[in-house]
Amino acid sequence: MLDPVSRVRRFNRAVTSAVGALDTSFLGRGRPLGAARVLNAIGHGRSDVGEIRDYLGLDSGLMSRLLRSLEDEGLIETHAHEDDARRRVASLTRAGKREFSAYEAMSNTQAERFLARNSQREALLAAMDLIASALTRDRIALTEMDPQSDEARHCLGEYYAELGRRFKQGFDVSLSRDPDAKDMRRPQGSFIVAMSDTLPIGCVGLKGSDHGYAEIKRLWVAPSARGLGLGKRLMNAAEDAARTLGIALLRLDTNSALPEAGQLYRTTGWREIPRFNDDPYPDLFFEKQIRA
Amino acid sequence: MLDPVSRVRRFNRAVTSAVGALDTSFLGRGRPLGAARVLNAIGHGRSDVGEIRDYLGLDSGLMSRLLRSLEDEGLIETHAHEDDARRRVASLTRAGKREFSAYEAMSNTQAERFLARNSQREALLAAMDLIASALTRDRIALTEMDPQSDEARHCLGEYYAELGRRFKQGFDVSLSRDPDAKDMRRPQGSFIVAMSDTLPIGCVGLKGSDHGYAEIKRLWVAPSARGLGLGKRLMNAAEDAARTLGIALLRLDTNSALPEAGQLYRTTGWREIPRFNDDPYPDLFFEKQIRA
DNA sequence: AGCATTATCTGACTTTAGTCAGATATCGCG
DNA sequence: CGCGATATCTGACTAAAGTCAGATAATGCT
Question: Which of A22, A110, A132, A240 can bridge B14 by disulfide, Cβ–Cβ 3.0-4.6 Å?
Answer without folding.
Answer: A132
